[in-house]
């Protein structure tokens, strides 16, 4: 039997989250690096968000616009395609990762090149485009500094915005010395390291003929793509090569050009903690004499319309990939991005990956449990995605072990009837009596139980049934 | 109002470690000459007002025909105007109009000098997207010199775009 499409994608966890997290937690260096980085970005975000007096209204407006987009996806896809085509772009539609990869590979081959330069893009990460291009003999050069670090290290990204957040400067210097031809600096000053990346990529940019990018927003009204970045590598890719291929998830659409006003205020402040990122490019079709002569836009579905049909889960499609939820998450901060086994880590990844693939893919059904449900992610989300509510929804609808299902069925049967429930409590009390004696030292809490209860006590103490129920106590003290 | 926006724009652009230079129209030719004195040559897009270049020392190059490789020559600087600017975020907005040229002119050279007139400054990004004369032209929004936060999330200036950005602000008429 052939596996369903998409099961091999870089959004499928190969290891159950608890096991991956336990491994990551043993890496104290990782925890120190992540703790420092997330603290820095949290403080910066808080400062620039506090500057905006109507931040809450801004979030609400943005959430409403995105809900409207999710409601009208097919209509807006058509509108975008018409406008972009009229402006000189070629628009393609890809139902899934395989279709998108095949399309892009074909477009690259048609230009007769064996190398493309890339702007950092989550959509191309999600579909594993670099791997697909490599299989066709095409090298994809990542030009974002963090992506370049991850690529040079043969590693996988661990953060949406800063894929190399798990590296500290010393590790990066050592990596450049090993893998970057011509690198000789013995300093680990970030400015020196960034300068080395500039030198290294300059010739590649100047000779590139095809670039691949994503988009932060796609405007249906005008057919425009918006690319938000910092380093200028995006502008290099958008302007120097003569062919540009953009892979854009359909949820990136915005109805009107003026909608960008709110979203361009929300994204940089939530993402890098800046009032505005250094460079934002808006590209509409082809402009004679300026930039690429060919623009292809691949509109990617890959499960998005299916998610749009789930009344609770669909809010995940509002996401603008700012990564603020990662930076505030107590779980992410401690385990890092690799534990989630997907290019979408953290709270948003925990609701996005299982929905994109279906919960039966790999161990993605364990991801909705990668949370304490503390709600910090909801508080910072610029488009007000109630991530904890979707986590609970996915827990409720996800697959359960047979033992858990049987236990819950028995519990439901018992609790449906007053006599059965009282009898069960009585049995539990008398059964717990010897345990209470044994656990007196630990305050009457069970710290380690045999299987299958060990699944509970591995992470928390189990309270024992009280010696006397409330009803019995009331009867003894009041009902004389 | 315009004076307040100018002051806010200058302060916010300065926060990104761009050089910000308020000046009067009379001082402009000398100020531009000083800022561009160290360049090997100055690239000029079509439509650059003649008074901007009146006192320039280095030779000038017309921007419309230069290739990316030519623009990568060491020591090159580019002098442009802009379409609009945003006070709240200290952002320059270029759309390929007069005195702005193709997008790569403000990308490949290592030093960008941009002249902003007070009347071009809008309050915030929502005002900007409403004020853009034609949103389907290639739009580039520039907020400070090229930068990255990819190493330990601490911001450093100077990656692929110009490492030096000077903004010259002309007062309200």
Describe the structure.
Chain A is 49% helix and 11% strand. In chain A, 47% of the residues are buried. Chain A has two domains: 18-305, NagB/RpiA/CoA transferase-like (Rossmann fold, 3-Layer(aba) Sandwich); 404-477, no CATH class. With 480 residues, chain A is an alpha/beta fold. In chain A, the strands form three sheets. Chain A has a six-stranded parallel β-sheet, with helices on both faces. Chain A is built from 22 helices and twelve strands. With 173 residues, chain B is of the alpha/beta class. Chain B has a single domain, classed as NagB/RpiA/CoA transferase-like (Rossmann fold, 3-Layer(aba) Sandwich), CATH 3.40.50.10420. Helices cover 21% and strands 27% of the residues of chain B. Chain B contains five helices and twelve strands. Chain B has helices at 2-15, 28-35, 50-53, 68-71, 125-131, and strands spanning 19-22, 41-44, 60-62, 76-80, 84-86, 91-94, 111-117, 121-122, 139-142, 147-148, 156-157, 164-170. In chain B, the strands form three sheets. A six-stranded parallel β-sheet of chain B has the order 1-12-7-4-2-3, sandwiched between helices. The interface between A and B is large, with 67 and 51 residues. Strand 9 of chain A pairs antiparallel with strand 9 of chain B, so a sheet runs across the interface.
Secondary-structure map:
The complex is a heterodimer of chains A (480) and B (173).
Chain A (H helix, E strand, L loop, with lengths): L16 H9 L2 H23 L4 H17 L1 H14 L3 E5 L2 H14 L4 E4 L3 H5 L2 H7 L3 E4 L2 H8 L16 H11 L10 H18 L2 E4 L3 E3 L4 E6 L3 H7 L3 E7 L3 E2 L5 H12 L7 E6 L9 E7 L3 H5 L15 H5 L1 H6 L10 H12 L18 H5 L6 H11 L4 H14 L2 H21 L6 E2 L7 H4 L4 E2 L6 H8 L3
Parallel strand pairs in A: 1-10, 2-3, 2-4, 4-7, 5-8, 7-10
Antiparallel strand pairs in A: 5-6, 6-9, 11-12
Chain B lengths: L1 H14 L3 E4 L5 H8 L5 E4 L5 H4 L6 E3 L5 H4 L4 E5 L3 E3 L4 E4 L16 E7 L3 E2 L2 H7 L7 E4 L4 E2 L7 E2 L6 E7 L3
Parallel strand pairs in B: 1-12, 2-3, 2-4, 4-7, 5-8, 7-12
Antiparallel strand pairs in B: 5-6, 6-9, 10-11
GO molecular function (chain A): 4 iron, 4 sulfur cluster binding; metal ion binding
Pfam families (chain A): Fer4_8, LUD_dom, LutB_C
Keywords (chain A): 4Fe-4S, Electron transport, Iron, Iron-sulfur, Metal-binding, Repeat, Transport
